[in-house]
Write a structure and sequence with these properties.
about 130 residues, alpha+beta, 3-stranded antiparallel sheet, two-stranded antiparallel sheet
Amino acid sequence: MKSTPIFPPIKVYYLHGKKWLIIEPITVALSNGEEITVPVGMETDLSSSPKYLWGLFPPYGDFLLAAIIHDYLYIYDYKKIEWGNKKAKAFADYQMLYFSNLINKNYIDNYLRYLAVRLFGKKVWKISRTQ
């Protein structure tokens, strides 16, 4: 039987509205083997589900690590210059699905969240921080 990988605890501090602050670094290996560290001080909205959908898709849960990693990859434009917009966004979006599937087995919820970022994440992705 395959066991679920153990990840470090996620420590965040509530700021205001939908904003949370990472208060301890989070280091993980992405699906391509590259290790990243989500830094202390990064702001996140956890999962960006609209409030009217929180009954079905709450902004927190067992996919929280996946959502934070996804936010990190968007905020820091992971591989955007090297790979280009389309490939880098697709990779960032896939990481959310990848980590969600590692952590929990609610594959339908995981896939619906993945589809949502594929379809609706373009507006946020286009806000470049490194160019």
